[in-house]
Design a protein that fits this description.
Blueprint: H1 23-42, H2 52-62, H3 97-109, H4 118-135, H5 142-156, H6 163-168, H7 170-179, H8 189-200, E1 211-212, E2 215-216
Antiparallel strand pairs: 1-2
Helix pairs in contact: 1-2, 2-5, 3-4, 4-5, 4-8, 7-8
Length: about 240
């Protein structure tokens, strides 16, 4: 395994301000702090005007625990995905994150949200959320940050999203992001479907989101990122949106 400056020596536990070294206790603390921060953020006057505001969202969610909250990671990471047979999404290499964010920022600044009808707005929101998640700029906390990015982008587009519905189906949402970030094999219909339903309030009480690609969502278990197996993923020059 490659040296990971974000974890305590000999562990996969993230170095944190409370010096919690039990992984389960840290997961619980992270969940508690993030949930409180999400509530505060939703009730604030925060708005997104730039891709770089997405970094500020991460900072607000995780700064109580991590010194690096809101800062792009400095190492390359891998995360085994059950939906991909244990393979990882090819996240952007650390050396390319700044360039990738700048490219996405150029696209974001060119958007005139008033020029789109509601369905087109949802497609654009899904695009930016998926691209940001694919960059995976942080050592941890990318999906929760992306969910809040989605929330604020939908607001920016003049629509309303049922964030509680998304939260209840969080495992489906995350796996939908995985499937939307597979280059030529990407399947964007899952992400578009759940975001569309969260805006239109369709299928709230259906069993539609219990499976994805034939896999039961409830069986999904969270895996931490690692610096191992990096030789299996693409090199920076191979990353093309």
């Amino acid at each position: 395994m490659n040296k990971d400056p974000y974890v305590y020596e000999g562990t996969n536990v993230l170095i944190n301000k409370l010096n919690i070294q039990d992984p389960d206790k840290l997961d619980q603390a992270e969940s508690d702090f993030a949930s409180l921060a999400i509530s505060r953020l939703r009730n604030s006057d925060f708005e997104v005007h730039s891709i770089y505001d997405f970094l500020e969202i991460h900072k607000r969610l995780f700064s109580a625990l991590y010194d690096w909250a809101g800062k792009p990671r400095t190492i390359d990471i891998y995360k085994a995905e059950p939906l991909l047979g244990g393979k990882s999404v090819d996240y952007v290499f650390a050396s390319y994150i700044d360039t990738a964010l700048l490219e996405l920022q150029k696209e974001f600044k060119a958007i005139d949200w008033d020029a789109f009808d509601p369905s087109a707005k949802i497609e654009k929101v899904c695009y930016f959320v998926s691209e940001f998640w694919h960059i995976h700029p942080f050592r941890e906390g990318n999906t929760r940050t992306s969910a809040m990015v989605l929330y604020f982008l939908i607001k920016k587009a003049g629509l309303h999203v049922n964030i509680d519905f998304l939260s209840r189906n969080g495992k489906f949402f995350r796996n939908a992001l995985v499937l939307s970030c597979l280059y030529s094999a990407s399947k964007t219909e899952y992400l578009l479907g759940i975001v569309s339903d969260s805006v239109t309030l369709k299928n709230e009480n259906s069993r539609k989101y219990e499976t994805i690609e034939g896999t039961e969502v409830k069986k999904y278990s969270y895996n931490h990122h690692t610096t191992d197996r990096l030789e299996t993923i693409k090199k920076p020059a191979d990353w093309k949106r």
